[in-house]
Design brief:
Chain lengths: 447, 450
């Protein structure tokens, strides 16, 4: 009976189902079919259209190009091309690409002059408005520089900028003029050797300058109050940071540092520059010289001749000729190797005060080996850059003190106020202005 | 069973209705998605945003994982190219001992000083070693410029800032001017172009020996190294800007003057004008409202927040009687020179004229307004801006290099070539422009005059 019911049910449902369709089919079978097909097609097209739109919106199937995107893309490509061009070493008018290394003729920085002291004295007498001593202090010219093209990475340029600001601050406080060199005056003496022709050139062009102070771009002033004790060097013509035992006994290639040194403007200096330069010319000369230096100096790795090793070799091999006028300074950090100093800044602030210049409060913190302008340094990037930032802020705090501010932390670019604004600001000027506390005599003295 | 409850026909109807409903719902859903994709549905976001969110989410997860796993490797990488500077800069929060301004009180640059002239005069008398005039008719000048303490967004931006400051160092060395390069934001409320106001006030009050403060934007370069500013011309004025009287007072044109390069005397009047200038500056509602007012009142000004230049035009135009007699709008030489009309003519200038003129024939300053080399986007094409900045820099640098016997190979070239042979009597050789030992730098006995 169930089965009968079921079959009846089936038949009835079928019958139910069929009559409707059958009914429809019987009434207008063709029309209905067409309409249904038409409906189906409509829905299919609609769905297809919607799918395409959605795909375009999400993954960008560009059947018709989008103008804004294309313009953006070309802008980005154009910018990248220009940046690459600016950073490259190529020049729009690089005519003399053929550079023959002159190995036969001996290299010279310029025509030999032997009476520079007399010429200079004469000039100074004839030009009393350009004395070599101002307010009792010898005139100093700080020379620094960097390569003319952008650094291999953008961070390098940023730290060059911070470095020059740091030097501007120190020199403003101490009445020193700055020359920032961005040109290679002598094609053969490029790289670290570029300072030699520049020093010589400046000595000639500025006879009123008594001392030329070369400073590397990776050296930062960290003691804004300390002033060079120039009276110590009255009988000397070259002041270098270094250690006599490292130089004479161990013959170490880092016995002195040519990242920060002083050259007196005199005949002796010209002669030394002439004796120093021969290892410099790019090419086989520099390579060969490099080998000689590595063989003779302790600890020197094998690479082309650099100015520091060459000077050490010169001072060692011609000791009698030069050493009596060379002062090896190590009582303060005319050059301070950064690794042993940067972590102690907080301790220094706590225990000591600016003006000491030595290991208690270093005069100069020199980031040897960091090479932020290149692609690779000798030390981890993070250590180098955070240390440079700390050194910069450590020095900047000393400058900002006059204005009543300091950095929030040694790694922070933001500053915070440490002294209220007042209607009598001059009392603080008297107290905090570094220039008023330096050891400057009150009368101007002629040479 | 359902058939028995509702009836077969009913069931069919329901089923059909259901099908229709499903199709309708599906189509609606797809429409919403498409609309989101094409025009974006406001806070419901766009697929691009979804994608970014997802990527960021995944990335942050990944970064956390990477940091945990490879902490050692990130600290020992020696490669500068892949390093992210923001990982070492620490933005420390305000500490308890920090002195902050009361946010409810109306903005001021500092407590009002009314006797600055007397205070300064007394100080100068007590400190004869720091005279405000270093020679007759030559006041002590402090050139102030600056940039952000964080690296530029544009990879070559810092390089152009470096060239710009070297250019300023050269001019100032020749003319006996001191430089202050600012990299600190003195007041967070006055950020952006307004940052110079608290800085200038602070410097005026901290350096009483400075007679004139010369503000110069970081995108302005000296292109005439021989031109000395005619200081005597301004002996009765306190504020010198490049501009035109008609454009400021009659037309109220928003570019009637330029605050990218101006001279401000260190005196009570200057403190007062800084106080009157500042109110439009504070970030937020004040600056936005002020911007709307300025766009309405000034000619040709586009719609954006209040900037210091428009505010100065408005201040001078509306309070001419109070300030006008001590403001000098200079247009006899290019204290500020808009780069667009100058940079293409450098070769023509070299041919026809000589340094020392300072005007349209040989501009003192070429100011790259709108270029914004430190940011990602400027108002002009990148190529034009950067190439022209190179040319302007070399144009100025040639005047420095000629002192030493060199010049750039061309205005576009970084390389230099020798133009004067080395001599064995270097002191007999004079540089053409006489910039090595110019008269305006000669030392005379210190003279203090008020």
């Amino acid at each position: 009976m169930g089965q009968e019911n079921l079959s009846a049910h089936k038949r009835s449902s079928a019958a139910n189902a069929l009559p409707t369709t059958n009914g429809r089919a019987r009434s207008a079978p063709r029309g209905r079919q067409i309409q249904k097909t038409f409906n189906n097609i409509k829905i299919t097209i609609l769905c297809g259209f919607v799918t395409i739109l959605v795909l375009r919106g999400t993954i960008g199937v560009n059947l018709s190009s989008s103008d804004a995107d294309a313009v953006n893309q070309s802008l980005i490509e154009e910018t990248n091309r220009i940046l690459a061009e600016i950073r490259s070493d190529s020049d729009p008018d690089d005519n003399d690409t053929s550079f023959s290394h002159n190995t036969t003729a001996a290299f010279s920085l310029g025509p030999k002059i032997s009476d520079w002291d007399q010429q200079r004295q004469q000039w100074l007498q004839q030009n009393p408005e350009y004395p070599s001593f101002v307010r009792g202090k010898a005139r100093i010219l700080l020379l620094t520089g960097s390569p003319p093209k952008p650094c291999d990475n953008p961070i390098g340029d940023h730290y060059l900028l911070k470095s020059i600001k740091n030097k501007i601050d120190y020199c403003r406080l101490h009445g020193i003029e700055i020359v920032y060199n961005l040109a290679h005056l002598d094609k053969e003496l490029a790289g670290y050797w570029a300072k030699l022709p520049m020093i010589r050139r400046l000595m000639f062009s500025h006879p009123e300058v008594e001392w030329i102070w070369w400073m590397d771009s990776d050296a930062f002033f960290t003691d804004m109050v300390f002033e060079l004790p120039l009276s110590k060097y009255d009988d000397y013509n070259l002041v270098l940071h270094g250690y006599p035992d490292l130089l004479f006994e161990q013959k170490s290639w880092i016995a002195v540092n040519t990242g920060s040194f002083l050259f007196r403007n005199c005949q002796w200096s010209l002669d030394l520059l002439d004796d120093w330069a021969p290892m410099g010319p790019k090419g086989p000369v520099r390579e060969e010289a490099g080998k000689v230096l590595t063989a003779n100096l302790k600890g020197r790795p094998a690479f082309e001749a650099d100015d520091q090793s060459a000077l050490i070799y010169l001072l060692l091999s011609k000791k009698e000729k030069w050493m009596d006028k060379v002062f090896l300074e190590n009582s303060y950090y005319l050059h301070g190797y950064w690794a042993g100093l940067v972590d102690r800044y907080e301790e220094m602030v706590e225990k000591y005060h600016p003006g000491l210049g030595d290991e208690r409060w270093p005069f100069v913190t020199h980031f040897v080996g960091c090479k932020p302008c290149g692609s690779y340094g000798d030390y981890p990037v993070e250590r180098c850059l955070s240390s440079m930032e700390r050194a910069f802020n450590f020095a900047d705090n000393q400058v900002l003190k006059l204005y009543g501010f300091r950095h929030r932390g040694l790694l922070s670019p933001k500053i915070k106020r440490i002294r209220n604004e007042t209607v009598t600001p001059l009392e603080y000027v008297d107290q905090f202005d570094i220039r008023r506390h330096s050891t400057v005599s009150s009368e101007s003295k002629s040479q | 069973m359902l058939t028995r409850c509702l009836g077969a026909r009913r069931l069919r109807q329901i089923r059909r209705a259901f099908r229709h409903g499903a199709v309708t719902f599906l189509c609606l859903f797809l429409t919403v998605i498409v609309l989101r994709g094409t025009i974006g549905a406001g806070k419901f976001g766009t697929p691009q945003q979804d994608f970014d969110n997802l990527r960021h989410h995944l990335n942050s997860h990944r970064r956390v994982l990477e940091e945990q796993h490879s902490e050692k490797t990130t600290t020992t990488t020696n490669n500068y190219a892949t390093f992210d500077i923001s990982t070492i800069l620490v933005d420390e929060p305000s500490s308890k001992d920090e002195i902050t301004r009361d946010p409810k009180a109306p903005y001021t640059l500092g407590p009002r000083i009314t006797n600055w002239d007397q205070q300064r005069k007394r100080w100068l008398q007590q400190n004869p070693n720091f005279p405000n005039f270093i020679a007759p008719n030559k006041p002590r000048v402090l050139l102030v410029t600056g940039s952000s303490p964080k690296p530029c967004e544009n990879p070559v931006g810092d390089h152009y800032l470096l060239k710009s400051i070297k250019n300023k160092i050269d001019y100032c060395r020749l003319h006996g001017i001191e430089i202050f390069y600012n990299m600190a934001l003195f007041d967070a409320e006055m950020a952006g172009f307004w940052a110079k106001l608290p800085l200038i006030r602070k410097l005026l009050l901290s350096h009483p020996e400075v007679e004139f403060l010369w503000w110069m934007d970081s995108d302005a370069m000296f292109t005439d190294m021989a031109f000395e500013v005619p200081w005597e011309r301004y002996k009765d004025h306190n504020f010198v800007m490049h501009g035109w009287n008609e454009m400021v007072y009659d037309e109220k044109n928003w570019i009637g003057l330029n605050t990218g390069s101006f001279l401000l005397r260190n005196c009570q009047w200057s403190l007062d004008i800084l106080d009157s200038w500042a109110p439009m500056g504070p970030k937020g509602k004040v600056r936005d409202e002020a911007g709307k007012l300025l766009t309405r009142e000034l000619k040709n000004r586009p719609v954006f927040e209040a900037d210091d230049q428009s505010a100065m035009v408005y201040l001078l135009a509306t309070e001419r009687d109070k300030w006008g007699d001590k403001v000098y709008l200079e247009n006899g030489y290019y204290l500020h020179g808009y780069w667009g009309i100058l940079v293409d003519r450098y070769e023509e200038m070299i041919e026809n004229y000589h340094p020392g003129l300072g005007d349209h024939r040989w501009p003192l300053v070429t100011h790259f307004v709108g270029c914004k080399p430190c940011g990602k986007f400027g108002d002009y094409p990148v190529e034009r801006c950067l190439r022209q900045m190179d040319r302007a820099y070399n144009f100025g640098d040639n005047q420095i290099l000629q002192m030493y016997g060199f010049t750039h190979k061309s205005l576009a070239s970084k390389r230099v070539k020798r133009v004067r042979n080395e001599s064995s009597n270097p002191l007999d050789v004079k540089d053409e422009l006489g910039l090595l030992h110019p008269a305006f730098k000669a030392i005379r006995l210190p003279v203090s005059s008020s």
